[in-house]
Structure formats: structure tokens, C-alpha cells
Amino acid sequence: MIKSIMKPFIGLFLFVGALGANAQNGRFQQAVQYTMDVNMDVQSNQFTGKQVLKYTNNSPDTLNRVFYHLYFNAFQPGSMMDVRSRTIADPDRRVASRIAKLKPNEIGYLHAKTLTMNGKALKFKEVETILEVDLEEAILPHSTVTFEMEFEGQVPIQIRRSGRDSEEGVRYSMAQWYPKMANYDEQGWHANPYIGREFYGIWGDFDVKITIDKSYVLGGTGYLQNPNEIGHGYEDEGVKVPTPSGKNLTWHFKAPMVHDFMWGADPKYKHDKVLMENGITVHHFYIPGAKTTENWEKLKEYTPKAIDYLSKNFGQYPYKQFSVVQGGDGGMEYAMSTLITGERPLQSLVGVMVHELAHSWFHGVLATNESLYPWMDEGFTSYATDLTMSNIFQTSSNPNRGSYNGYFRLAKSGLEEPLSTHADHYHTNSAYGAAAYSKGAVFLSQLGYVIGDEVRNRAMLRYFETWKFRHPNVNDLVRIMEKESGLELDWYKEYFVNSTKTIDYGVKEVKGSGGNTEITLERIGLMPMPVDLVVTYKDGTSELIYLPLVIMRGEKGAENGMPVRIRTEAWPWTNLTKTLVLTKDFKTIKSVEIDPSKRMADLQPENNKVEF
Ligand SMILES: [Zn+2]
Predict the structure, then answer these.
(1) Can you tell me whether residue 55 is helix, strand or coil?
(2) What share of the chain is helix, strand, coil (3-state, %, to 5)?
(3) Residue among 219, 352, 346, 231 nearest 287 (CA)
(4) What distance in Å separates the CA atoms of residue 393 and residue 396, rounded to the nearest whole number?
(5) Least C-beta-crowded within 10 Å: which of 36, 236, 237, 419?
(6) How far is the CA of 199 from the centre of ligand 1 (A)?
(7) Mean per-residue pLDDT for 97-108?
(8) What is the distance in A from the centroid of ligand 1 to the CA of 109?
């Protein structure tokens, strides 16, 4: 009796449990814990390492294979990255045909020498930048295994993102340098070969020891564990650092909850440390000189300011440290740090620092799969950068204008591909760049037009709080925007992300009719949008007529700085024109204008305003 009652009861309980998991969108996060011990030979530029990787399979699936990224193997003549960078229609000048010309002592490589799982040897196959590993014993759902690997590598001449001896003379920019487990999520494995674009990683704890010539100064991801042994500006105040006896020093870093680990190293680095009021320490590393020192001194004021602004507007920065490291070939974001070129005018130096710092929110903490959604990282970072720069330097009333212009050029170029394109698969570098950076930024700025700026701003904070450390995708973002605004926004994603259809609305005709005024608007572009129509009268007053789309199933609230809304009238997207009758004499009207805020990405703004 009890059994027969209990059985369906347990069944129901499990069913509810499964629904609970679905309420979290059926999502799981794999987990990693890396312990690495690395020896760098600064003469040969080669390194050896041992890696212990505790890997937890939080998926409901049994894994029979795993994949590691071996990014440095891309820097070899004939690699996929080499071929792609030479044959793409518009080569990146930083790469172009440089990989093809690398000599054996200039190439990069990263090889696994031995690999075990739970102490048993594994067979593995290196397929250029991916190590394919068939497991002897499967990794069961919700279990943890330990991989141990010995590896060896050579740091390539600096070509893209990482490498040695950069144009500005930085010895080592060590990014994408270690064997890194590929991510497995609800869409399966993401073992993309490295052809030069975008990343996706697993959060976890890193414990990294780097042994290197004692003249070198290191900075990057992670908190230094032995500052009073190392010195170089890391030591606590008043501590006398002992002179190391041997030729090398071993630097010990720990980084919790990050999905990557970068370090830069140079004997000439100057190390500056700024402690912010909120307890975050900002580290700067640069080679002093006529083109750097003055501006990097000033940077000490800007990095903390930017951390404060971004934390306030996009969610609290969750780490206790951020390091700006001179290196690389432009600017590139890493966990708790960035590598940027340093010989720049002040505005450019601050701009690149802010951009890479802003990535901490979108690449570091939210960490969408950047290969699938590069625009949710680069675009949102560009958007946040423009707002931060405008706040710091008190400039421009429309900070995202540059992004709109970049998107307009793309849309008119005939080269546009939808934002839903995989980062590696865009046909041209220019279409990728303008889509990911510019159209991605416009997505957010324009969303302010659709749902209201203040609602969008609140939703961005909610997005961060809801999805931090959980790899959100485009649907997750749109759902947050829908919940915060109360509006249906699936159409916005379908048109603006999944298609290249463009926006063009126009004022077709304004005429007097028996003491009233008749206004006819038309939709010329293929993408429908809500319309803010502002009517300005000759007495200087103005009024807003708001035309939401029927498919929004609602209307945005009143916005600060907009004229009083006198009417709301839904416009079905199927109708190409809409005629409104104003109970005002035609002679009293000075102008009629669609979206004077210019947040709507209207490709032909010339037809948006009629003046009398
Ligand atoms: Zn970026």
C-alpha cells in the first residue's frame, strides 16, 4: 500500500525536479581546475610544462572523447590560419602572408608529450590546433576525472595576439599558450580549429607556476602568491626582497573563476600599482620611453575611473585585480587583464584600455560563445566603451554614433552577412568587423529606442546578474529584455540578428484637410520598427505620436527628454503606409519628424523629416 502510493509520488517528484532543471534552461557548466608548472627558456623561446587538470562533467551526457586547443600550432606555414589569412578577400595586415614566411625557430608550436586520465595512459592525435583524445574509460555525467599532461611549446614571433618580440619590443605576450580543454555544452563539443578569431572557454580555478630568468617582470591574469619573494613592485610596503640565488625565479599565480590565463613578460617593464577605494588593485606594465611614460602615468587615473563607471552601469566587477599589460599587436582581452600596444596618444591609449576592460563584463563574466555570437561580446563591449569614454571625457551627446555609421557603411556595401554568422565563417574581415563591433553596438543602442533607454539600462544590469558565469546566448538576452520591458521582442532578433534586412521609414505626405492635418508615413525598408513621430508647431511646442508594432503586444513607457505623447496607435507590419489625422490646422505645423533621437538605424534619414 505504501509502496504503491510512494511510487507515483516519487515519479512526480523527479518530474518536477527535471522541470526545475529546465527552468534553468536545461543548461549546465563544465568545470575545470588547472594546476600548471611551466619552465620558460628565454634563449630558445621554448617552454616545457606539466598540467594537472581536474575536469568535472556536469552534463547529463557520457563523454567518450575530449578535445584540447593547441593554439600555437596555428603559427606554422600551411596551417588553416595561414591559408585563411592569405586567401581571404581582404587580409588583415597584421597576419597577411607573415605566417607562411616563418622559419623553424620562429614558428609557434604546442605539443602534448604524455597524457593520462586517472593515472592511465591515453592515446591522442594532434590535428593542428586541436588535440583529439579518445578516452579509454568514459567520463560519466556528474563525475570528476584528472588529466595529467606533459607539454612543450615554442613561442612564435608576434603575429597575432600572442608571441615574442612585438613591434614595440615586448619579449613575451603569452596568450592562448597552454593546452586548453575545449568547451562542451548543450550544443556539444566546441573544438573549433584556430584560424585567428574568437574564443570560448570553461570557468575554473588556475594555479600556475612560471619559472623564468630572474630579470623578467611578469603581469597578467591571477593574483601573485609570493610577492615578497618576487619583488618587482609586487612586494608589500617596507618589505626587503631577498636577492634570488639562482638564475631563475618562480612566479606563482592563482586565479579563481576565470576561463583563460594570460601573462606578459619583459625585463624592461615598469610596474605601477594603484589601489582603488573599493579594494581592487590596478596593475600597469609598460616599457618606459618617450612614447609611453607620460601617457601611462596618466592612465593610472583612467583605469580606476573606467572600472567604477562600468561596474555601476553593467554590474559589479567581480575580481580584486585588473592588469593592463603592454604587449600583443593592438588590444586583446583576457581574464582579469589585457594586452595592448602601448605607444599611443593618450586618447587612443585610454580608448583601447577601456575597450579591453569592458570585455571583462562580456567576454570574461557573461562569456557568450564568441564564435557563435561575436557581436554579443565585441558589439556590447564597443557599446559600453563608447558610453564610458563619453563619461570620462564628457564628450558627445550620442556616443554610439560611430557604430551607427559603421553599420550604415556595411549595410550599403553589399557585403553584409547576418549577425548569426559564425565568427570564423564570415566571407570578409570587413563584414565580420562591422557586423560584430558596429551592428552589435547598434543592437543595444537601438533597443533603447524600442523599449526605452532606462528600461534597456535596467535590463543590462539584470542580464549580468542573471547570466554571469553562465554563457548566455542570444535568446537568453532577448528574454531578459522582454521581461524587463513587458514587450514581445522576438521579431527584433529575427530581423536584426538573423537577417540583413534594413530599416527605412519616411514621411510620405503632410497635407491640410478641412481644418485638420493628414500625415502619411511609409515603410520602405524590409525591417519593421516602432515609430516615434514628433510634430513641432510654429509656437515652439511639440508632441509625440507613438506607433508601436502590433507584434510588440504593448508599448514602451514615456521617456525622459521626449515631448508629451498625445497618441498611441499600433502599426501592423504588413501595412506599408499609415495615415494619421491630426485635429490641428496644417498652418500651425512647423515640422514632422520620425525619430529625432536618431537611435533607430534608419538607412535613409533624409526622408524622415518634413519642414514647412
Ligand atoms: Zn574587443
Answers:
(1) strand
(2) 30, 30, 40
(3) 219
(4) 9
(5) 237
(6) 12
(7) 96
(8) 25
pLDDT (average), residues 584-611:
97
The pLDDT tens digits of the residues spanning 240-294 come to: 999 999 999 999 999 999 999 999 999 999 999 999 999 999 999 999 999 999 9
CA of residue 358 to ligand 1 center, whole Å: 8
| Dist. CA 374 → ligand 1 center (Å) | 9
Amino acid 197: pLDDT: 87
* pLDDT tens sequence across 46-93: 999 999 999 999 999 999 999 999 999 999 999 999 999 999 999 988
- Looking up cell 500651425 gives 588
pLDDT computed for residue 1 by the predictor: 38
Question: What sign does the CA torsion over 68, 69, 75, 77 have?
Answer: positive
332 CA from centroid of ligand 1 (Å)? 7
* Cβ(144)–Cβ(51) below 8 Å: no
How many angstroms does the Cα of residue 357 sit away from the middle of ligand 1? 9
End-to-end CA separation in angstroms for the chain: 86
Q: How many CB atoms lie within 10 A of CB 423?
A: 23
For the chain, what is the mean pLDDT?
94
pTM for the complete prediction?
Answer: 0.94
Q: How confident is the model at residue 7 (pLDDT cuts 50, 70, 90)?
A: very low
Q: How far is CA 486 from the centre of its chain?
A: 27
Separation of CA 93 and ligand 1 centre (Å): 18
Task: Report phi then psi at 378, rounded to 5.
Answer: -65, -40
Q: Bridge-partner residues for 274, per DSSP? A: 282
Centre of ligand 1 to C-alpha 429, Å, is 14
Residue 217 predicted with pLDDT over 50:
yes
Amino acid at 163: G
Q: How close is the Cα of 237 to the center of ligand 1, in Å?
A: 35
CA of 556 to the centre of ligand 1 (A): 31
- Pull the grid cell for residue 514: 478641412
Q: Which residues have a beta carbon within 5 Å of ligand 1, which is an ion?
A: 378, 381
Question: Cell numbers 627558456 correspond to what residue?
Answer: 41
DSSP symbols for 19-54: HHHHHTTT----EEEEEEEEEEETTTTEEEEEEEEE
Contact 533, 542 (CB under 8 A): no
The answer to whether residue 3 scores a pLDDT higher than 60 is no
**What span, in angstroms and rounded, lies between the C-alpha atoms of 580 and 285?**
61
Cα(160) to centroid(ligand 1), Å: 14
| CA Rg value for the chain | 27
Is the per-residue pLDDT at 546 higher than 80? Answer: yes
The per-residue pLDDT for range 403-436, each reduced to its tens digit, is 999 999 999 999 999 999 999 999 999 999 999 9
Strands 204-213, 188-190: pairing is: unpaired
Q: In angstroms, what is the span from residue 105 Cα to ligand 1's centroid?
A: 31
Q: What is the DSSP string of 350-413?
A: HHHHHHHHHHIIIIIII---TTT-HIIIIIHHHHHHHHHHHHHHT--SSTTHHHHHHHHHHHHH
Bridge pairing between strands 321-326 and 281-286: parallel
Q: What is the mean pLDDT of residues 540-549?
A: 98
Q: Quick one: pLDDT at residue 306?
A: 98
